[in-house]
Amino acid sequence: MTKPAILHLEGITKHFEQTTEPAVGNVSFTLHEGDLLGLVGPSGCGKTTLLRIVAGFERPQAGLVVLAGRKVTG
Question: How far apart are CA 68 and CA 58, in angstroms?
């Protein structure tokens, strides 16, 4: 039996004006109740930007964030 999804991201993309490359590019995943997630990568790869999008401090240009069954962005 699949546990309920507590966080679902689909196609999250975020650009900043000063760059041509996205800070976050087409990120998708689902985190189920009881799952653990590690977000690792080099400096400047978009980890903090992704977390700020999930928390609602940044708005993505594309994609969907669903937190505890509630659509947060998209």
Answer: 19
Nearest to 54 by CA among 34, 74, 35, 40: 74
Q: What is the CA radius of gyration of the chain?
A: 13
Tokens standing for residue 16:
């900043």
> What is the model's pTM?
0.88
**CATH number of the domain that residue 50 is part of:** 3.40.50.300
Convert the pLDDT of each residue in 22-56 to its tens digit.
Answer: 999 999 999 999 999 999 999 999 999 999 999 99
Task: Detail the DSSP E strand segments found in 1-74.
Answer: 5-14, 24-32, 62-67, 70-73
Q: Whole domain around residue 69: which residue ranges?
A: 5-73
Which amino acid appears at position 10 of this protein?
Answer: E
